[in-house]
Structures are given as C-alpha cells and as structure tokens.
Amino acid sequence: MRITCVGGGPAGLYFAVLAKLADPAREITVLERNPAGVTYGWGVVFWDDLLDDLFRYDPVSAARIWEAAFKWDEYEVRAAGKPVSFLGGYGFSLGRHRLLDILGDRARELGVTVRYEDDLTDPDQLPPADLIVACDGAGSRVRDAAAEHFGAQVETGRNKYIWLGTPHVFRTFTFGFEETEAGWIWFHAYPFADGASTFIVECTPETWSGLGLDRMDPATGNARLAQIFARHLDGAPLDDAGRGWLNFRRVTAERWDHGNVVLMGDAAHTTHFAIGSGTKLAMQDAMALADALPATSPPAALLPAALEQYEHRRKVALAPLQRAARASSAWFERMPDYAGLPARRFSYALSNRRGEYPAWRYLLHMSTQGAVARTMLRWTLSARRWNRARRRPLRAAVG
Ligand SMILES: Cc1cc2nc3c(=O)[nH]c(=O)nc-3n(C[C@H](O)[C@H](O)[C@H](O)COP(=O)(O)OP(=O)(O)OC[C@H]3O[C@@H](n4cnc5c(N)ncnc54)[C@H](O)[C@@H]3O)c2cc1C
After folding, report:
1. Cα 266 to ligand 1 centroid, rounded to whole Å
2. Domain boundaries, the chain
3. What pLDDT is stored for residue 394 in this prediction?
4. What ligand 1 atom has the least distance to the C-alpha of 34?
5. Residue limits of the FAD-binding domain (predicted)?
6. CB 3.0 to 4.6 Å from 129: which of 2, 238, 261, 358, for a disulfide?
7. Residue 174 to residue 200: CA distance in whole angstroms
8. In CATH, which of 1.10.274.10, 3.50.50.60, 3.40.50.300, 2.170.190.11 is domain 2-336?
9. Which residues contact 243 (CB under 8 A, 6 or more apart)?
C-alpha cells in the first residue's frame, strides 16, 4: 500500500510512524514544504492523557517525548491590581521543533521517506498513491481544492493574538493580565525548555488598534509588548515566530474523505489555543486512522469503510473538546467583563471558563490559596504524576 502524507506536522509524521509500525511493507512518503528543523510557533502543552496514548501506540517515540518534555506544576494568575492567585494541576510542554525532530527521526528510522522542502502547490500534481492524507494544517491546500465536497468552513475569532517566545523561563503556566490606556491585554505563558518559554499575547481588536499595534512593524510591536509586560519578563525580550498578529481560525469540515483523500489534524478541525489541545487532537487523529486501516487486506475495496470509521470515531471524540474550546475562547473575548472581580473569584472564573466545574471546585480553589494548602495540593498532584509515569515503559527510547 502506498501512502502519501501532505504535511510533516505532528499529524502527518505521527501517522506515518504508526502506519509503518502496523505494516512495514507500506511505502509511506511525507511531503513537507519547510526545510528539516524549520517550523512555526514555540512550545506546546499537553497532559497525561496524551502521554498515556503515546505510550500505548509507540513506546519508543513516547519515551523520547517524555524525556524531552518540560514538566511544570500549577497555574499562576497575575492580574494587574490584584494579588497573585493559583490553580492546581500540572502538565508538560515541548518545543514544536523538538517534537517534530523526534517524530521525523522516528519515521525515518522505520523506513518512511520524509521529503523536506517539497511544497505541494497543486493538489492535482500529487504522485499516485492508494491513500493521501491531507495533514497540511489549518490552511490546507488539499482540502481547499475540493472545499465544496468537504463542506469546509472557517470562522474567524474576534480577538487578536500573537505567538511569541522569550528566553525568560516562567516557573509555571502563567496567565498575566495588564490594563493599558487602550484596555486589557494578557498573555498565556509556560516554560518549554531550559531558557525558553512560550508567550502568547491576546487582546480585543479595540485594544490592539488603540495601542497602535496594528500600525507597528514587528520589532517595534514586540518591544512595546515587552514594555507592557516588563514586570513579568524581568527585562527579557519577546521574539516573534514570524507570523505576526492573527485572529484564530476555527476550521470545520462536514466530510473528511473524498475518494482516497482524507483530512487529518488542523486540516480537518482546529481547536482554540486557549485549551492547548490541537497537537494532541492531531496525534489522536493519527492513532484513529492507523487503527481503522486494514493491515493486510486489499486497500481499495476496504478504504471507504476504514475512512468512515476513522471520521466517526474522531468526530465523536472531538465534540466535547470543541465545545470546551468555544466556551474558553468566548471567555477571553469577554475578559474585560470579569476584570472587576476580586483576585480569587477572577482566577476561579478563568479556570472554569469552560463552565464545567461542579460547585465543590470553587471551595477547593478558595481553600488552596494559602501557602500550606497549596504545597499539599502540589505534593498530591506530583505524586499522582509520578505514579502515572511509573506505569509507562519509560526506557523504550533506547530501542
Ligand atoms: C498560538 C497557538 C498555540 C498553540 N498551543 C498549543 C498547545 O499548547 N498545545 C497543543 O496541543 N496545541 C497547540 N496549538 C495547536 C497546534 O499547533 C496545532 O493544532 C497542531 O500543530 C496541528 O498539527 P497538524 O499536523 O495538523 O498541522 P501543522 O502543525 O500545522 O502541520 C502542517 C504541516 O504541513 C506543512 N504544509 C502545509 N502546506 C503544505 C504544502 N502545500 N505542501 C507541503 N507541506 C505543507 C506545514 O509546513 C506544516 O509543517 C496551538 C496553536 C496556536 C495557533
């Protein structure tokens, strides 16, 4: 079976790994327009649920991801004029570059051909293959070439955001809110490597233009943001990932397959960064498609059923997260309405932005703001993290 993946992001590379593991006789090619080691963005966050899945599907790449991942505890909420407050929890983060290096290396070790600097400009020019996986991101050319068939829709979010990085290492996942003369502006920041943190800045379009950010060149704009957030950055600069200010694009597609072409990851669906799950969902798509493909049967006859099974499984799994992402992004669009709340209520509203918490979570939140209760909560969660980790085959990376 010949498989071509258009796009060497997390979806394409991870699917290539899993499809090759399931049947080493498959000829799999990944086409990636960027040179090896080049990508957009900074670090991405993920949690235990993804790690559990990764270890189940390919312990070798999972162990490498685990070893490279930055482990952080707690969320910190810093809103101008209020005392700092804390949310329990823990998570992991990893630079996109590092993740793609790990997946690209693993794919090549297994015999996948990864062709970098191969930009598919015309989807009609794809080399013949039994299966074409369109995993070329939110702006998918393959999807857009048959946009009507796929029923693709793109909805644009109201807020402006920019994905920045900084050498300042945040201790933990931090939300910071500053009030300027043009309104509120905030960041979502987390460490993802020694000496590097992701720093996503977001604000309403009114604040964006009111601060003149719409008219500044990138260097001046980043310097202005570094000045607004100086007390959080200890004087460190902010670097752009090269894409500038954007509005989030929410992509949906009614159908995910068209003949032997199937959509995967951001090409099929995007999920707002406020819940930090797009990479996880892209990799879980890869798992579902690898599961659905018959390992040895003649592919052409069984392909439609396999693609249908994949799409159904993923749409069911995605629905609650997409609802959560919508609620979460809507909270940030209404953020100025919450600004007048006292610190603890503000941070609780932020943590419950998906609107799903039972009432006892409010009591837990209030009772864990003091140093002693917070430390106890951190220890308990830390123990849970290491207990979960203990059950995974962490030494598989050597293989
Ligand atoms: C600000 C921000 C923060 C985020 N933070 C997180 C986070 O913390 N956690 C998380 O899980 N997710 C996060 N995400 C989401 C995550 O980045 C995406 O959901 C994820 O990268 C999707 O993976 P993908 O492989 O589907 O697409 P992509 O990662 O976009 O990969 C697509 C690949 O296809 C290539 N390509 C495109 N067109 C062509 C072509 N014509 N020919 C050849 N190659 C092509 C591109 O170069 C790219 O390498 C964030 C997103 C944003 C915008």
Report:
1. 6
2. 2-336
3. 79
4. 47
5. 109-316
6. 2
7. 11
8. 3.50.50.60
9. 40, 162, 163
Q: Are 115 and 31 in contact (CB under 8 A)?
A: yes
What is the 8-class DSSP label of residue 297? S
**What CA–CA distance (Å, rounded) separates 296 from 22?**
9
Q: For residue range 208-267, what is the model confidence (pLDDT) as tens digits?
A: 999 999 999 999 999 999 999 999 999 999 998 778 999 999 999 999 999 999 999 999
Q: At a CB cut-off of 8 Å and minimum separation 6, what does 229 contact?
A: 176, 178, 187, 199, 201, 238
Quick one: pLDDT band at residue 343, thresholds 50, 70, 90? very high
Distance CA 108, CA 18 (A): 12
Q: Which residues contact 59 (CB under 8 A, 6 or more apart)?
A: 392, 393, 396, 399
Take atom 39 of ligand 1 and give the residue whose Cα is closest.
136
| CA-angle at 359, arms to 184 and 187, nearest 5° | 20
Strand partners, 252: 153
CA 253 and chain centroid, separation: 19
In Å, what is the CA distance from 282 to each residue of 76, 287, 370? 28, 9, 38
pLDDT (tens digit, 9 = 90+) per residue, 114-130? 999 999 999 888 889 99
- Residue 45 near residue 172 (C-beta atoms within 8 A): no
Does residue 277 sit in helix, strand or coil?
coil
Mean pLDDT of 156-179: 96
User: What CA–CA distance (Å, rounded) separates 149 from 123?
Assistant: 15
- Residues touching ligand 1 (Cβ under 6 Å) are 6-12, 31-34, 39, 41, 44-46, 119-120, 135-137, 141, 163, 200, 265-266, 273, 276-280, 282
Q: By the 8 A CB rule, do 156 and 28 touch? A: no
**C-alpha 190 – ligand 1 centre gap (Å):** 18
